Amino acid sequence: MNYFKLLTSLILFLLLVSCEEEEELPEAKSHQIISVNSLIGVDSLIQVKLSKSTGTSVEIKYISDARITAQKNDKELGEFIYRQNGIYELPGQYLASESKYQITVTHPSFKKITTNTFAPEKVSINDIKLVNDESEGKTTFHLKFTDDASQNNYYMLLVKGIANNKSNVIQYYSNDIVFEGNLNVNDNDFDQNMLRGSRSFSDKNFESSQVEISFYILNNDFFVDYPKYKIELYHLNEDYFNYERSFVSLQNKDDILFSNKTNLYSNVEEAFGIFSSYALDYKIVSKQ
User: Fold this and answer.
1) What is the dihedral of CA 53, 57, 60, 62, to 10 degrees?
2) What PROSITE patterns does this protein's entry cite (predicted)?
3) Which of 2, 8, 27, 150 shows a CA-CA span of 20 to 30 A to 89?
4) pLDDT tens digit sequence for 203-239
5) Domain boundary residue among 73, 97, 119?
6) What's the pLDDT score for residue 105?
7) What average pLDDT does range 183-208 have in this prediction?
């Protein structure tokens, strides 16, 4: 009888620990903090979005009266101008690759914020081939690019269908080891299930600097007959990589009974959010 009570208590304890509440956003206590949102592509206008973190993703309160300054490689760039909906921009300044950027945010009601990002260099797509296999009902892509083996690199791959001058992100699948644990077809264990649907990957499983990745789309996954596809290869910095994977984990947690405690990744001290960058290359291929 005592053994039965002990076992019951242990099961209840494990359930309570496994179902512990997760902090997607900082909780609103005695004061609010600033939330920074800025994911900037190389050659894009430098912009930052500010809001008040209220502990809920439903209510958004934009901040319009902050002062934001920027530095590039330790040299002053100037002050941001407020536009609308919490968006500030640095007039005439576009993100340059292989450069370090730092922003400082000041506001009388909040703590001073300083954060930085290093903009990566574009990694070019060397070749992309498309094979349409009607018998298996899928279209396979073979992508080639060169990875710099002297440093740790992080990537993200998107596939977009193009029709009537519009593009839509479409789901793809792969058995390639670089996606191990990310995509729906590779959800083999608990930890991998948390990353189900992630489109980012690192270079840890690359066999050489000359990389070839195979992936495919299922023709029955969508109702539109896309005559062209746009393949986008993003070179991410580590902060963006961590942010994307934590974001996907948060999306998946409600579908998993016993999920790990997961917070949205942030590289902003004394606040919440992300200030990061990426470089993009793409190719458009026609359906055979």
Assistant:
1) 50
2) PROKAR_LIPOPROTEIN
3) 27
4) 988 889 999 999 999 988 888 889 999 999 999 999 9
5) 119
6) 97
7) 67
Q: Beta strand pairing status for 272-286 and 33-41?
A: parallel
| Measured torsion, CA atoms of residues 100, 237, 53, 103, in degrees rounded to the nearest 10 | 0
- Please tell me the predicted confidence (pLDDT) of residue 245: 85
Please identify, among 62, 85, 119, the residue that sits at the C-terminal boundary of a domain.
119
Q: How many domains, in total, are found in the chain?
A: 2
Choose among 208, 274, 192, 206: nearest CA to 241.
274
Q: Encoding tokens for residue 134?
A: 């009607």
Q: Are residues 192 and 115 in the same domain?
A: no
Containing domain of residue 46, as a range? 33-119
> Same domain for 63 and 114?
yes
Cβ-Cβ contacts under 8 Å for 165 (sequence gap 6 or more): none
